[in-house]
C-alpha cells in the first residue's frame, strides 16, 4: 500500500510517501523557523496560515519526487493531534479532502505515535517490546511498548517538556529559536561539569519528570554571573549551556535505566526532537551497555536519523500505513485533537 503522510501539527510542514513494500519513497519538509524566530517562539495563527500555503505544493513535490502519480496513492495519513488546533486542521482538511477526491481511506495519526515509530524507518529497526523515551518540544514520556497501539505510560513530565526546557534556556542565554540545537552547539564549547545543576526528581522513586525547577536554577545562575553591564562572559555562557545539557541528559538517563529495570526490557528507543541530541544519545548508549551487562543480557539503543527525530511527514506516513493496512480508517467526522492520550489508541 502506498500512503501519503501529512504533518502540520506545529511549525513544520512535512509530507512523505511510504510504500509498505519498498519503504520510504520520498519526503519533503518545509520549516517555518524563520517566520517564528523573530517572536522567539511559535505563533499559532502564523503557523496555520503558512501550512495552508505550503501543504499542497509540497504534496505535488513529494509525489513527483517519489516518481508516482496521485492515483497510485492507496491511503492518506495526517497528524490529527496533539498539536496546535489551527495547524492540525489544515492537514486534516487537506488529507480528508484529497482522500475523498481520490476515493481512498484516510486516517488521523497521533503525532507522538509517529515519533515513537520513527526508528522503524531505519535499516535496522527495533523489535517489540521496548521502552520508548519520547522527548519533544511538547512531551517528555516514558512508554512501555508491546506493539503498535499497545502503549502503557510509565511516566511523564509534570511541567515543562525536555525540549521546552531547552528552548527556554536557549532564550535565557540569548540564543535564537529553537533553543534546543543551539544550546547543544554552545554546550560543546563549555567546560564539562563546571556547573552541577540539579537532576530533578531522580532521588525519589518513580518515572515522572519535572524540568521547571532546573530551568529556574539556570535562570538564577545566569543572573548571578551577569556583570554590572548585564553581560554574561562568553565562556560562562557556554559552561551554563553545558551544565544544563548535562543535567537533562543525566536525569533522562537515570529514568530510562529505571524504566528498563522496572519492565525487565532490554531495548530502549528514543524519539522526538531532543533525541537528535548527541550527548543524550551518548549517555543512553553507555547506560544501556553498562546496565544490561550487569543483568548479563544483550540490549540496545535505537533512534531515528536526525531528520526523522524532529517533526516530519515520513513518521506519519509510516504510522498511518501500518494502521491503514490493518483496516483502520476515519469515519465521517473530521477530527483534530489538541490533546490526545497515547494510551487511548487502538491496538492493531
Ligand atoms: O519533535 P519536535 O520536532 O516537535 C515537537 O513535537 O515538539 O521537537 C522539537 C524540540 C524543540 O524543543 C527543539 O529545541 C528540540 O526538540 N531539539 C533539540 C535538539 N534538536 C531539536 N533539543 C536538544 N538538542 C538537540 N539537538
Ligand atoms: Zn513532534
UniProtKB/TrEMBL annotation:
Required for the formation of a threonylcarbamoyl group on adenosine at position 37 (t(6)A37) in tRNAs that read codons beginning with adenine. Is involved in the transfer of the threonylcarbamoyl moiety of threonylcarbamoyl-AMP (TC-AMP) to the N6 group of A37, together with TsaE and TsaB. TsaD likely plays a direct catalytic role in this reaction. Residues 24-318 form the Gcp-like domain. Residues 215-242 form a coiled coil. One of its GO terms (biological process) is tRNA threonylcarbamoyladenosine modification. GO terms for cellular component: cytoplasm. This is tRNA N6-adenosine threonylcarbamoyltransferase. Pfam families: TsaD. InterPro entries: ATPase_NBD, Gcp-like_dom, KAE1/TsaD, Peptidase_M22_CS, TsaD. One of its GO terms (molecular function) is tRNA N(6)-L-threonylcarbamoyladenine synthase activity. SUPFAM superfamilies: Actin-like ATPase domain. Its cofactor is Fe(2+). It is found in: Cytoplasm. It is an enzyme of class 2 (transferase). It comes from the Bacteria. Belongs to the KAE1 / TsaD family. The lineage of its organism: Bacteria, Pseudomonadati, Pseudomonadota, Gammaproteobacteria, SAR86 cluster.
Amino acid at each position: 500500500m502506498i500512503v501519503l503522510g501529512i504533518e502540520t501539527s506545529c511549525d513544520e510542514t512535512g509530507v512523505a510517501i511510504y510504500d509498505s513494500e519498498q519503504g520510504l519513497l520520498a519526503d519533503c519538509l518545509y520549516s517555518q523557523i524563520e517566520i517564528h524566530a523573530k517572536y522567539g517562539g511559535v505563533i499559532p495563527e502564523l503557523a496555520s496560515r503558512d501550512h495552508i500555503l505550503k501543504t499542497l505544493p509540497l504534496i505535488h513535490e513529494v509525489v513527483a519526487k517519489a516518481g508516482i502519480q496521485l492515483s497510485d496513492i492507496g491511503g492518506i495519513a495526517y497528524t490529527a493531534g496533539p498539536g496546535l488546533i489551527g495547524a492540525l486542521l489544515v492537514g486534516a482538511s487537506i488529507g480528508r479532502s484529497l482522500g475523498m477526491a481520490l476515493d481512498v481511506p484516510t486516517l488521523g495519526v497521533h503525532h507522538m505515535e509517529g515519533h515513537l515509530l520513527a526508528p522503524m524507518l531505519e535499516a535496522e529497526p527495533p523489535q517489540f517490546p521496548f521502552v520508548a523515551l519520547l522527548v519533544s518540544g511538547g512531551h517528555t514520556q516514558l512508554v512501555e511498548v508491546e506493539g503498535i497501539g499497545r502503549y502503557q505510560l510509565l511516566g511523564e513530565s509534570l511541567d515543562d517538556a525536555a525540549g521546552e526546557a531547552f528552548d527556554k534556556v536557549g532564550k535565557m542565554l540569548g540564543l535564537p529559536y529553537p533553543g534546543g540545537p543551539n544550546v547543544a552547539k554552545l554546550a560543546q564549547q563549555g567546560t564539562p561539569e563546571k556547573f552541577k545543576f540539579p537532576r530533578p526528581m531522580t532521588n525519589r522513586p518513580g518515572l515522572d519528570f519535572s524540568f521547571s525547577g532546573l530551568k529556574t536554577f539556570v535562570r538564577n545562575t545566569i543572573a548571578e554571573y551577569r556583570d554590572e553591564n548585564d553581560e554574561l562572559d562568553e565562556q560562562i555562557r557556554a559552561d551554563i549551556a553545558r551544565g544544563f545539557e548535562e543535567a537533562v541528559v543525566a536525569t533522562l538517563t537515570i529514568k530510562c535505566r529505571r524504566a528498563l529495570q522496572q519492565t525487565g526490557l532490554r531495548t530502549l528507543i528514543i524519539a522526538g526532537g531532543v533525541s537528535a541530541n548527541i550527548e543524550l544519545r551518548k549517555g543512553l548508549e553507555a547506560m544501556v551497555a553498562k546496565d544490561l551487562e550487569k543483568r548479563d543480557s544483550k540490549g540496545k539503543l535505537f533512534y531515528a536519523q536526525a531528520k526523522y527525530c524532529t517533526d516530519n511527514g515520513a513518521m506519519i506516513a509510516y504510522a498511518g500505513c501500518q494502521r491503514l493496512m490493518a483496516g483502520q480508517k476515519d469515519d465521517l467526522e473530521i477530527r483534530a485533537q489538541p490533546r490526545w492520550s497515547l494510551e487511548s489508541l487502538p491496538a492493531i
